[in-house]
Write a structure and sequence with these properties.
42% of the residues are buried. Strands 2-1-3-4-5-6 form a six-stranded parallel sheet, with helices on both faces. It has a five-stranded mixed β-barrel with strand order 17-18-19-21-20. α9 (229-237) packs parallel to α10 and α13 (326-339) runs parallel beside α15 (367-390). The protein is 36% helix and 22% strand. It is an alpha/beta fold. Among the domains are: 4-140, Rossmann fold (3-Layer(aba) Sandwich), CATH 3.40.50.12160; 396-480, no CATH class. Bound molecules: S-adenosyl-L-homocysteine (SAH) and FE3-S4 cluster. S-adenosyl-L-homocysteine binds next to β15.
Amino acid sequence: MTKRLWIETVGCQMNVLDSELVVAALRRRGWEPAGSPAEADAVFYNTCSVRQHAEDKVYSALGRVRLEKAKRPELVVGVLGCMAQKDQDLIRTRAPWVDLVVGPGQLHRVPALVDDVLAGSGPRIEVSLDRTAGSRDAVARSFESYDPDRDPTMRPTPFQAFVRTQTGCDKFCAFCVVPKVRGPEQARPPEAIFAEASKLVAEGCREITLIGQTVNSYSWKDGGRTTRLSDLLVGLDAIDGLDRIRFVTNYPRDMTDDLVQAVRDLPKVCHYLHVPAQHGSDAVLKRMKRGYTIGEYLEMHARVREAIPHAAVTSDFIVGYCGETDEEFAATVELVRRLQFKNSFIFKYSPRPGTKAFERLPDDVPEAVKRERNRVLLEAQAEASLAGNAGFVATRQRVLVEGLSPREEKAASREENAVAGVEAAPDRQADRVRQLAGRTMCDRIVVFDGPERLIGRILDVDVIAAGSWTLSGVLPNLDHAEP
Ligand code: SAH
Ligand code: F3S
């Protein structure tokens, strides 16, 4: 009988990709997606450790699945990903009903491990070596890149895909648990990346997003030749049928001229650069061990602006980091006002066991102050975003239509709930006009009315209004839509 799998994914694009690949691997063994945890033979959580909140969510989900497991002891409960690597046995101490604990460097073993558990092996824990547990090579070998064949039906949209360029991170920012849980930085061979991209395009994919923790540190040495991210972009740009190339996340110091020029000159590469600054004060950047000063960040930003004036630069910021004073926080607000990022992801500092900051610096900014600084910075960013978006009003933009707008998605799911149990399928005909959402070449979201069949197409949209987070547009004429 077909076995059914339910998977919940927390965290970054890496996890979204890993979940897609795990599901695809199990499907090849005859598993199918379940409609709910109650219908599933296996329930997996693909987890994130970057902040405490992400871990708390998974532990409470594990609390809920305990009831299901009590009713059906044969249910396989698995914790995959970063929290599995970080907490290891502790997961089974806190939740003894968990059968499988598999770190991000061991995901290729999931199908065999599930078989083992179903055959009565008892709980299985498979993780990689700790970063201090052996030579760099030995640790790196224990984090295997997980790149099995893709299954187009497993992606949320068939016309977009993530492609991994490298695993792990070697930067060791003082606050960040990623180098610990995802292991040493290891590049994938360029040929593997090109082959995967070509296959995805042959299956109908139009947009590829390269992903790596510090994607622009990519470096592959083969004999005397080094392949860098800019070389990957040149190779991908030449793939017929591929329309858009994006890449995340960039490390400020590795934003080299060859990369900036590639983004400027290659027609398929989006003018969108996510380059987290993390903070606006040199003293805090030093405590964060980020490896650059604000002066260096400004120099990098000016170089990007000069080469590609309309590029969308985005950032991440941490507020309430160890010892952050009012003046230091003010420097972050000042940086956001000065550089007018397209948008920023703002996080309250969350101490992570296993990091330098956790070991050496007290988490001394009160939660209420973190919350207030988060609010203030968000407000500054919203103003900058609105000002940036306003410049797009009365322009025509090429937009890749990604799907229904969030508002329509909600309405559609209400309709589906309303007809649940009734014979008729919800009305989602291709010609029905809906509010759609798409993205410009510089990563701006545009919502506009159009028939559902436009999803997955690239077409012109006239922008008529701007908010902080989205642009509103109208279709000039449906004939503009290319097939
Ligand atoms: N290079 C990675 C970064 C992963 S973490 C990437 O691909 O995006 C994503 C963001 O979370 C970081 O840029 C940082 O702003 C934030 N972050 C990391 N550790 C954090 C911590 N301990 N507390 C709060 N935010 C954190
Ligand atoms: Fe984390 Fe810094 Fe690497 S934020 S992922 S250690 S570049």
